[in-house]
Each structure stands twice: as C-alpha cells, then as structure tokens.
Amino acid sequence: MFLSIDLIYILEKLILIVIIVSISMVVAMYTTLAERKVAAFIQDRRGPNRAGPFGLLQPLADGLKLFFKEEIIPMFSNKFLFVLGPGLAMLTALMTSAVIPWGSKLELFGREISLQIADINIGILYVFGVVSLGVYGIIVGSWSSNNKYSLMGGLRAASQIISYELALGISLIALLMVTGTLSLKEMVLQQQEGYWNIVYQPLGFFLFLVCTFAECNRTPFDLPEAENELIGGYHTEYSSMKLGFYLFAEYINMFISSAVMATLFFGGYDIPFLDESTLPVNVAGVLGIVALFLKIAFFLFLFIWVRWTIPRFRYDQLMGLGWKVLLPLALLNMFLTGAAILFFDK
Amino acid sequence: MQPLTNRSQAVNRAPLTWWERIYLPAIIGGLSITLKHFFRKKPTINYPEKTRPFSPVFRGLHILNRDEQGRENCTACGLCAVACPAEAITMEAAERLPGEEHLYREEKYAARYEINMLRCIFCGLCEEACPKDAIYLSETFAPSDYQRKQFIYSKNDLLIPHPEKEPEAYKKALGNRAGKNEVK
Ligand code: SF4
Ligand code: SF4
Q1: What are the structural domains, with CATH classification, of chain B?
Q2: A308 touching B, CB under 8 A?
Q3: Tell me: the pLDDT tens digits for A214-229?
C-alpha cells in the first residue's frame, strides 16, 4: 500500500503547493499596495503612484527596502527565539492555505488535478488549529525582544486571541450543525447544489467576520500593535526583513481568512446562478478560481475599508465586546440553529 | 461663565441608548462616508508632470533681463541690493571695455551678481527698485537641492537666454511678463 504511492501524484501536489504559496505571497504583496491606495483614496489622496504605472511596482520597492535595512538584534534578547518569532508567524500564516479548495478541478495532460492541496476530512479544524498557533509567533517574538512594549503587545495578542477564538469557534459550530461536515470541499459542493451558507447563518457570518478581524489583528482590534500607545507593540524591536515577515504574515492571514470566509459562507469557488456541470471541466475550473478570487478581493477590500474607517477599541472595551457580547450572541446563534434544525427536521 | 465663542457646545454626557450601544448603525454610517470619499475627485496635483497654474502676479525665481539685441540691462547700480529687505543680493561692478558693447548695454555692468535664494523672501522689491528693467521675478520657484551653496544663484543661473541665439528659450523665460515693466 505504502509503496504504491504515485510519484506523479506527489509531484503534482508539490507543484500545487509552490503555486499556491507563491500566489499567496503575490496577493499579500499587492494587498499592501491596495491598503495604501485605498487608504489614500479614502483620505482624498492619490497614494503611491511613482514606482511603475499606477505605483504597481511599489510592493517590490517596499520589499527591497526592507531587505536592505540594517538588521538589529537587541543585545538582551534571546536570539534564537527572536529569529524564530517572525518565522513562526509566517509559517502558520502560509500553512492554512493547504486545505482551502481553490477551485474544483482541472484536466491537464490527461490527469484530473484537484485544486486543493489536501482534502482532509477535518479541514476546518485544521484551519483553526493552525490559525491559533499563529499567535505563538507574536508571543515568542514579543517575549524574546525583552522590551516592555513588545511584551504588552504580546500579552494583548494572547488574551485577544483567547477571547475571540471562543466566539469564532461557537459561531462555527452552528455552521457545522447546518452543513454536517468538517471538510471544506464538501461544504463547497453542498453550497453549489443548495444555497450559500450565508442564507442559513447570517448572524453566524457576522460574528465570524468580527472575530476574523480580531484574529488577523486588524483595526479596530489591532491592540497588539497599537502604534500610538505601544509604539508598534510586539514588533517594536524588529527591523529589516524580520519586521517584513511580521507585516507580511498579517496580510497573508487576511488573504487566507478571506478565502476561508468565502468558502464557508459564500460558496467558495461556486459561481452564483450558473450550473457549472454544463461547462467543460477546465472552463468551469478556471471560472471557479476567478469567482473565488473575486470573493476574496471583496473581503480584502472590506478589511482595508474598515481599517481606514473605524478607530481602535480601548482594551477593556475589546474584552467586554468579546466576552459580554460576541460570546453570548454566538451561543444564542448556536441554540437558535439547533432549535431550527430540530423544528424543521432538516 | 460666558462662552468664549459662539460655537461652543455643551458635551453630551447622557448614557448611550441601546441603538447607539450596538455600534453597528454608527459603523455603517462611517463606512458609507469613507466610501463616498473613496470615489471623490482627488485634489492632489501630480507635481512634476502637472504644475499648479500661477497667478500673473506670482513672484518666483529672479531673471536678469537682456534687451532685444541680447545685451545685459543691468548697470550694477546696486539699487536692488539696497532695496532688498533680506539682503540677499551681492554684486561686483566692472567697467565695460571697448569692444564689449554687444554684451552690456551700459558703460558699467555687474561682473558678479548673486542672489541667495535661501535669504530671499520673494518680495519683489528688487524688481520695483531697478531703473533699468534688468531684473524681474518669474513664474517659477527655486527647485530643491541637497546643498546650501547651490542656492546661491550666480549670474549664469539668473540671466535670461539670449534672444537672438536661443529665441525659443528666451520667449519661454520671458513668459507673459514681456514688456510688463515697460509700462512706466
Ligand atoms: S525679491 Fe525681495 S528679498 Fe528677494 S532679492 Fe528681491 S528684494 Fe531681495
Ligand atoms: S538689477 Fe537693476 S537695480 Fe539691480 S544693479 Fe542691476 S540695474 Fe541696478
């Protein structure tokens, strides 16, 4: 059994991994540009427009700049952990992409290629396992930099993750009760046949969205890196590309979270009002990818839009919101869903 | 206490109502405001490609004038330097030698003529003081530079292009200032 593993299959998966990781990187790069552009537009400015046409080369310039910056490791820091922190953050950010179905399938060279790296049957649990590991990158980095502001940022990140992961998980349980599966692929297939899950779970989606903002450390929940009170929070001591990794991991997290949201609630690669089975496999596959990326782009825009609109919460407000509002709402949503399932005997 | 301005308002410290406390209406209101700004026309002018139109009375970089035959007008009388409130103008006079009539209009001319653009306040008093229509302020401003000494503009930087040798550049430098000072 073990020996019969198809070598081409492994190769195919490896290529898929490389492609998806590079796409995540490129999307994250251009999200930084989008962030600056949208911020500028919202503030009646033009944003970066000098590097390349419309500033399209700006992310490259930013990346190069980070590479050429002097690299400083503070004297009293724990060097191993100090370097490990950003690496962990980046690793966990990228790992989540493995279970997301990026499209249905393509037929190339006579082989049917599934556009998902691993269709594991506990897909969504895997996502949450890995995402909550992401906070270790922040905590390790902040603790090892031996700086009070960093430590504050790390502590905030830890307590924030705990408070919001709970509501996130419970809002998800309601969704799982509706779908009856943990595999992301199957959820998409279900939504392709029936309605999108947002129809069954509007409150659940809303809670999920709010908690995702908190998970990605995005405004209004960017307490761990609050610039004006913690001078950068957990990455105060970081410079050069290690800082770049932290910032970049945030954007990759946003990208993956958008993909998860699109998959869970908005039908993944499903194209609304279109029966994909009537199209040739490859066309349907490509169109599906486009549809998914349009949905992701919308969520990314939402992330940025909210960031440049809403001010940051105070820390006690943040905790109050998490424990006193979102958690009870998530529980309520779970009970209502359960009652509805029982009542309609779905 | 008497309010100091007619715009002062008492701070509303009433506790938030239920509608206010669910935040969402306010958040959606805020989002719609920012979205409106997103599509608004941007007031920024893309500087090096486009420049802001200056008013015809704009006082910018100085230009030392020539007459129609390309001779320098300035006679190094020093009135501009005396008039200058910022003491930005330095000059050295020299006597015109026989055979130099095609270079200088008067018998005396400025061998060195420098304006320190960091001192200059672009008041235009030098232009008003000049009896020879030799200096005027153009519609451009001094470009930025890395070194202070580059801001001391010498005669080479200030002189208008020769009207016969480089007629186009001369016209451009003259702009719509042509004959402005001749109206006595
Ligand atoms: S514009 Fe005013 S400050 Fe500048 S050189 Fe002329 S007189 Fe002096
Ligand atoms: S620029 Fe005019 S005022 Fe100044 S020295 Fe020359 S002629 Fe005299």
Answers
A1: 62-180 (3.30.70.3270)
A2: yes
A3: 888 787 887 777 777 7
